[in-house]
Design a protein that fits this description.
Chain lengths: ~325, ~500
């Protein structure tokens, strides 16, 4: 029973830790499927988190925080779009620049506005996206096995966590069942085909990066107002990059993206869990090793086990009409 | 003349200093097949791209069915009933046929209903025009002939009454091309207007009603096809008389210079691209390898020249064995007298951002005569390049010009000059005239015959059947990685075409 509880707790924190990854990875999916590589997920999520923390503290409303986060990260996404779609700049350089801008400006603005060493003031429980108890969670918690599974694992997450997981089938539906999705996938593979079909390549890609902005805004909000009670400097801590790894790992497909994020979330949860506790046979594992595991895993698995991850064919290449 | 489906008046278009189209007037009658012929860079594709809204003309007017039309984008062209089949197919490789066809013409935001409608419409089109293709097949699994059919269906699905085809037969076998022509004639009978852009005279004569000739951006003549000849069109295209058939004496084959035995090459997925191929090339003869692109010719060339590792088999060069299965070394092969004009001059033959004189010695830069101690002897290299420019009539005659700024034909001459001037024993040539204009083709063909007459062994790989037939002393046909037959250059096109399509294969095997 103890073991079961430990296990459920581990899964519970897996879910919590994979939510920001899921937002960021799905965000990247829209952009990259349209042929715009986005290494700036990290920066957009960080800026989103800061905006969420700041707005929630000032306006006293979680929803204001969410709105601010989405606005700010759409803005950054449009900067990326302007550089890489309109001006055909290098998408990696533009993405890296956004990461730097976000990392620096959040600290400066945070210090200038709130004078708490770069953090935003802590907000109360009512101004956060707190836990949502699913119906009958309490009543069912006594039922063996299924009870704790329902009341601890499924119930009690932030509203945004449910949104993240519902976004998985939604994204799949958009991508494979709508006109927008068909065109989005086409423009990432062969923009010339889209252009000759009489559709604007630029406008289509702009819409894709706006989707990315919305979702990274949600991811940032989750970090600042669901996992924490305010913004802390560098709070994304590389999650944008892990999300990118998950996206590649899942070969740019929505459902595998969810499983990849859960896997990386699990590794994260596991590394927190075993901190300081020696493992049988191997002894104490340095925490840095566990933190590096997602990256090592991506490299190893991509190198041999799951086959080549073929990115969208036109990814990273600005569209220029050929002469 | 019937009413014009399309009329162009005074169309001009420049790209920077290059005047791609100058003051073009053209009338295309409804319900006819109208050919537009011209060398590469004559401005055919630019003109059609203007008509399809891909570019805008700097000056001039377009009339569609007598009405003045402002075509600012491809969607304007589509709305006017103009459809285009591009030279490089505008298909999404990992989409199904149906998805490609509805892309941009979906109708409603959700795919479910539009897909169902499109499927019904597609079935009707396939029935009406005999254009069968599986709507659920993925594009990359289809042979190019079928991919092209999808492009045609795409245009018809959008209600095209005027269909532009840009170099449609470049990727097809002769029999696939004939099938395409049948389809085009049928479309014409249905009242559609067809514009066929090509640089192949044979096609113009075979299928068009009228033909317009373009040269250096200008439209120089329009003729009724039945009232003109191949010779007249060639002359109009180039601006001077052209010898279409190469003149050559009989071959005097000497020693075996290149012997290939049981050569097998696999691609990265382990698929056999070259399957147990054996043949010889003797000094003083040209052996041509015919075949539709993608039947293992590229892999064969790469294996023989040491670029790609072979799985098994042996090659001897002038009696000496060549290591091909272990550590093949293209540089060593060059030292031993094997010169190679690669199929893809942009990726393998040249470094485009380099100056002409640098490309003119690339791969031979280790030779004493280009060196001064450990350094390159720039003076000697430029002098050498200047000699080659004169000898091969490379234009413009500027050794310092960036290679990318030469035309396709002149780039090819740079490669040929470099390889031929090394006085090799064996010359391996892949697609020597791909993307090269008629005037340069004539020159290149003459040089290849010269090489033969000097006693070199020449292995020629080309997808242009005419080229193979006029140059080769013996023709080998490759299909699905194997040599499926050997013929003399007198073999008919039909006979070779069947071999290239793999039809004759079983008969050969039975013998």
């Amino acid at each position: 029973m103890e073991l079961l509880n430990t296990f459920i707790q581990l899964l519970d924190s897996t879910v919590r830790l994979s939510v920001p990854l899921l937002f960021a990875a799905l965000a990247g999916l829209y952009s990259e499927r349209s042929g715009v590589f986005d290494i700036g997920l990290e920066g957009k999520m960080l800026a989103g988190a800061f905006a969420a923390g700041a707005a929630a503290a000032v306006a006293g409303s979680a929803w204001a925080g969410l709105a601010a986060a989405v606005t700010v990260s759409i803005f950054l996404a449009l900067v990326h779009g302007f550089a890489s779609i309109t001006h055909r700049g290098n998408q990696i350089v533009s993405g890296v620049a956004i990461n730097f801008i976000a990392a620096g400006s959040t600290i400066i603005l945070g210090q200038a506005w709130f004078r708490q060493g770069g953090r935003t003031p802590l907000v109360g429980a009512e101004d956060r996206f707190g836990a949502v108890e699913l119906p009958f969670a309490d009543a069912l918690s006594g039922v063996p096995i299924l009870g704790p599974l329902y009341s601890d694992l499924l119930s009690g997450h932030s509203l945004l966590a449910y949104v993240a997981f519902l976004l998985v089938p939604f994204t799949w539906w958009v991508l494979f069942r709508t006109r927008f999705g068909l065109r989005l996938r086409a423009v990432g593979e062969n923009p010339a085909a889209v252009d000759t079909a009489g559709i604007s390549v630029a406008w289509l890609r702009y819409r894709a990066v706006i989707c990315t902005g919305v979702l990274t805004g949600f991811g940032g909000t989750y970090l600042a107002l669901a996992q924490n009670a305010g913004f802390v400097k560098d709070m994304t801590a590389g999650r944008g990059f892990i999300a990118l790894a998950a996206l590649i790992f899942a070969k740019w497909r929505p459902v595998p993206v969810m499983f990849a994020c859960l896997l990386f979330g699990f590794l994260d949860a596991f590394s927190i869990r075993i901190q300081g506790t020696p493992l049988p046979l191997v002894g104490q594992v340095p925490v840095q090793f566990m933190q590096a595991l997602p990256y090592i895993l991506t490299v190893v698995l991509l190198a041999g086990f799951i086959g080549r991850a073929v990115p969208p064919r036109a990814g990273g290449v600005p569209y220029v009409k050929e002469r | 003349m019937a009413e014009a489906a399309i009329e162009l008046k005074g169309i001009s278009k420049s790209f920077g200093a290059v005047r791609a189209n100058r003051d073009i007037d053209l009338k295309i009658a409804r319900g006819t097949i109208h050919g537009i012929i011209g060398e590469n860079g004559a401005g055919k594709s630019t003109l059609m791209s203007i008509l399809y809204g891909f570019y805008q003309a700097d000056r001039g007017e377009i009339f569609v069915n007598g009405e003045r039309a402002a075509i600012l984008s491809s969607s304007d062209a589509i709305a006017r009933g103009i459809g285009m089949v591009h030279q490089h197919f505008m298909l999404v490789h990992n989409f199904t046929v149906l998805e490609n066809i509805i892309l941009g013409a979906e109708g409603e935001p959700l795919l479910k209903t539009s897909v169902a409608k499109a499927r019904a419409e597609l079935e009707r089109l396939e029935r009406d025009y005999g254009l069968e293709v599986d709507p659920d097949a993925v594009i990359e699994d289809l042979p190019v002939g079928l991919q092209q059919r999808v492009e045609i269906l795409k245009a018809l699905f959008r209600g095209a009454e005027i269909l532009i085809l840009d170099e449609p037969t470049g990727v097809l076998t002769p029999s696939e091309a004939d099938h395409l022509f049948r389809i085009l004639r049928q479309l014409k009978d249905e009242g559609k207007t067809i514009v066929l852009i090509t640089h192949k005279l044979r096609e113009i004569m075979a299928v068009t009603d009228n033909v317009s000739v373009m040269r250096q951006g200008a439209l120089v003549a329009t003729r009724r096809t039945e009232e003109t000849t191949v010779e007249e069109l060639a002359e109009l295209m180039v601006g001077r008389r052209v010898l279409l058939r190469v003149e050559k004496g009989p071959a005097r084959p000497g020693d075996f210079m290149l012997s290939v035995r049981n050569l097998t090459v696999e691609d990265s997925r382990g698929v056999k691209m070259v399957d147990d191929v054996s043949f010889d090339v003797r000094a003083g003869e040209i052996v041509g390898i015919a075949g539709v692109a993608g039947n293992g010719q590229s892999e064969l060339l790469e294996a023989i020249t040491g670029i790609r590792r072979a799985v098994s088999g042996s090659v001897t060069l002038d009696g000496e064995p060549v290591e091909l299965t272990g550590r093949a070394d293209p540089a060593d092969l060059r030292r031993r007298g094997m010169a190679h004009v690669p199929e893809d001059r942009h990726n393998m033959g040249l470094v485009l951002p380099f100056e002409e004189n640098e490309n003119a010695i690339l791969g031979y830069h280790w030779q004493e005569r280009y060196l001064k101690g450990p350094f390159l002897d720039i003076e000697a290299i430029r002098r050498d390049a200047q000699d080659k420019i004169e000898k091969y009539d490379i234009r413009p005659p500027d050794t310092r010009l960036k290679t990318a700024n030469f035309s396709g034909g002149n780039q090819q001459k740079i490669v040929l000059a470099r390889e031929m001037e090394q006085d090799p024993k064996v010359l391996i040539v892949g697609q020597p005239t791909r993307g090269v204009d008629v005037g340069a083709i004539e020159f290149i063909h003459k040089r290849l015959i010269d090489m033969r007459d000097q006693g070199k062994a020449v292995l020629l790989v080309s997808v242009e059947l005419d080229e193979i037939r006029s140059l080769s002393d013996r023709i080998l046909v490759m299909f699905a990685g194997r040599i499926v037959g050997e013929r003399s250059p007198e073999a008919t096109e039909g006979e070779l075409g069947l071999l290239m399509a793999g039809v004759e294969e079983e008969k050969e095997a039975a013998q």
